[in-house]
Amino acid sequence: QVQLVESGGGLGQRGGSLGLSCAASGIIFNMYTLAWYRQAPGKQRELVAGITSSGGTNYADSVKGRFTISRDNDKKTVYLQMNSMTPEDTAVYYCNAKHPITGYDVWGQGTQVTVSS
């Protein structure tokens, strides 16, 4: 069964840090491009950070220098470390895995992150 399960969301404070994890099953994990997206109330889902199978990363301008995406292929897990958080980071965060050739992709169920001021 193909599945992505996020964990680590919750309540943070302005200037604080939170870490998210996303564990995958049912896919050949090391072949997939992984990404974190987020969706705030009333807004469209947006890409936060991505990491390719070879470890190349990209970030939304709004999180550059504050967030770090990483992956552990042995554990089939992708991480998002969020530092210097602001209330504008409040959103539901989703993990995504996409095969770079077939385009097949799978989403996690989402985890709520709330940053208080």
Q: How would you summarize the topology of this molecule?
A:
Blueprint: E1 3-7, E2 10-13, E3 18-25, E4 33-39, E5 46-51, E6 57-59, E7 67-72, E8 77-82, E9 91-98, E10 105-107, E11 111-116
Parallel strand pairs: 2-11
Antiparallel strand pairs: 1-3, 3-8, 4-5, 4-9, 5-6, 7-8, 9-10, 9-11
Please state roughly what percent of the residues sit in beta strands, choosing from under 5%, 5-15%, 15-25%, 25-35%, 35-45% or over 45%: over 45%
Q: What structural category do the secondary elements indicate?
A: mainly beta
Taken in chain order, the helices and strands follow as: EEEEEEEEEEE
| Oligomerization status of the protein chains | single chain
Average of per-residue pLDDT values: 96
Q: What can be said about the biggest beta sheet?
A: 7 strands, mixed
Distance between the termini: 40 Å
Number of strands: 11
Q: Helical residue percent?
A: under 10%
Low-confidence stretches: none
Shape: globular
Based on CA atoms alone, the radius of gyration comes out at: 13 Å
Query: Number of DSSP helices?
Result: 0
